[in-house]
C-alpha cells in the first residue's frame, strides 16, 4: 500500500532541505574565504623579467603615432598591430616583449590596438592580426602577419636596423 505524505511532513522535509542547503553554502563560503586569505598571504614569486620596465610602448592616439613616425629618423620601428580579443595576438605578445628586451638597442617597439585606431590600421593595410610592421625612415620595410618564430623577427630586426 502506498505511503501518503502529509502536508506537515512535506513542510518539515522542505525546512530540513533548506536548512541543509544554507549550512552547505555558508561552509563553502567560509572555505573560499580561507582559501583567498591563504592566497593573499602567500608570497608572490617575481622574476627579474617581471621587474624590468616594459620596452613595448602602447600607442594611444593618432597624434602620438604620427609623432613617433616623424621623429624616428634612422631608428627602426617595430609596431605590433593587435586587438584585445585576438588569441594569436595574446600568444605573440610575450614573444614580442622578450624580443624587445633583447633588441632595445636595435629598434623601438610599439603596439597599436586596431579596434581603437582603425584609420591607422587601414592606412597600413592591415588585413589580419597579429600584424608586425617594420618601419625605417618613415617607410614600411617589412611586415609579418600571424605568429612566426622568434628567429624570424630577430632576423628582420638585424637586417633593417643596420644603417642605410
Overview of this structure, please?
With 164 residues, this protein is an alpha/beta fold. It has two domains: 1-42; 48-161, Glutaredoxin, CATH 3.40.30. Helix content is 51%, strand content 18%. The protein contains six helices and five strands; from the N terminus they run ααβαβαβαββα. The chain has helices at 7-41, 48-51, 62-71, 87-102, 118-123, 150-161, and strands at 56-58, 76-82, 107-113, 131-136, 139-145. Strand 2 (76-82), helix 4 and strand 3 (107-113) form a beta-alpha-beta unit. The protein is elongated, with a radius of gyration of 28 Å. The mean pLDDT is 83.
What is the count of DSSP helices, taking H or I runs of 4+ residues?
6
- Which fold does the CATH topology of the largest domain refer to? Glutaredoxin
Structural class given helices, strands, pairing?
alpha/beta
What would you call the quaternary organization? Answer: single chain
